[in-house]
Amino acid sequence: MHFLLTNQDIQTMAIKAAITGVGGYLPDYILTNQELETMVDTNDEWIRTRTGIETRHLLKGEGLGTSYMGVRAVQDLLEKTNTNPEEIGLVICATVTADYQFPDTANLIAHETGMKNAFTFDLSAACSGFLFALNTAAQFIAAGTQKKVIVVGADKMSSIVDYTDRTTCIIFGDGAGAVLLEPNEDGYCIQDAEVYSDGSGKDNLHQAAGGSARPASMETVAAKQHFIYQNGRPVFKAAVSGMSGVGKEVMQRNNLDNDNLAWLVPHQANIRIIESVARMADFPMEKVMVNIHRYGNTTAATLPLCLYDWEDKLNKGDNIILTAFGGGYTWGAVYLTWAY
Fold it and tell me: What's the confidence (pLDDT) of residue 14?
């Protein structure tokens, strides 16, 4: 059987998704290393030398969840891009700290921002969540079924951090970032992506209780099983290997090198991980986006917050690699050319 492609088919195949705007939000309260010294057995020098973190933002206020930050990041995005919220057809929120088991956080964000014509869903891939959501959203644009899509990466990590655990409470912060995706046929778009997952990493990075396998009970709360658990050494090794490996894979496939790649945007997990990934990719640190010292690890928000911070330094045509690693394990890379 033979199929004949029409000109319209060919044009549709050429459509790709471009990031046409970035928004962000950080809560007002700043938790410093000095304050952490009063909470757990640690000190500023130890935290900075091992993680690179100096401060992190925390969302305070009764009843305020991840959607609160997502709403404000999206409002910032809509205002900056002069976009009518009713024009948005799809909202994907990457998060592991949803306001509720249901409804989904993306649903709440769409409602609060007037995106009443959008269908919505959450995507959970831990620290790789925004990367996975971005790749997913791009397919709706490329298929021609959506014209304006918003991808949100947001997490209120303080809601699942044990502030008596010195190994995890120093790492995480709260925040949200959002991007607008629109069709592009001029090459300023998401060019390529590679994503992976491996469930064998579950034992090293997880939240033990709160899901259907171990619902909340007096016993799970008393055992502190609703907080993050991380086995640092194997996670560190897997993160460096995963991000550097997939980053090099995408770079080689697209003939990218230090000369034609403008920026590397790695997940902000730990400064030593970031430096190791850059070194293994043979990429100079001066072209690596780093803001972990100010925000800590905001999980699904780290990548969009990097783009948010660097937006005024990005030029149309810049080649950029985003790469992330998260619990599961999950990891991947996206190659895009900046569109504005």
Answer: 78
